[in-house]
Design brief:
Elements (H helix, E strand, L loop, with lengths): L4 E3 L2 E3 L5 E6 L5 H4 L4 E6 L6 E6 L5 E3 L7 E6 L4 E6 L8 E7 L2 E2 L3 E5 L2
Parallel strand pairs: 2-11
Antiparallel strand pairs: 1-3, 3-8, 4-5, 4-9, 5-6, 7-8, 9-10, 9-11
Length: 114
């Protein structure tokens, strides 16, 4: 398994933006690069859900509720995965988790409140 460390969460107001970062310091670059990367989130009382995925080809997928507001990207040389979140809504409040190579990070809390 790969150690993943998420950061960038916080308490923000509706309409603001955040950029979440997932670092994979122990990943081997040759493994990190061709691996599908994903961000999930888990809101209180709800199941963890996939919100964004980045395939090695560069193809992205987004959940319906975040299309146009979330952008997933990766810097393979730095072994980092990013999730840019714009126009945050209270419904985006959740713990956000990075996933790749069958590994999970510890999550980073995003709270959207007036």
């Amino acid at each position: 398994q790969v150690r993943l460390v998420e950061s960038g969460g916080g308490l923000v107001q509706p309409g603001e933006s955040l950029r979440l970062t997932c670092a994979a310091p122990t990943a081997i670059t040759s493994v990190f690069r061709p691996t599908t990367k994903a961000w999930y989130r888990q809101a209180p009382g709800k199941q963890r859900e996939l919100v964004a995925r980045l395939a090695p080809s560069g193809t992205t997928w987004y959940a319906d509720g975040v299309k146009g507001r979330f952008t997933i990207s990766a810097d393979n040389s730095r072994k980092r995965v990013y999730l840019q979140i714009n126009s945050l809504e209270p419904e985006d409040t959740a713990v956000y988790y990075c996933y790749l190579d069958n590994s999970w990070g510890q999550g980073t809390q995003v709270t959207v409140s007036p």
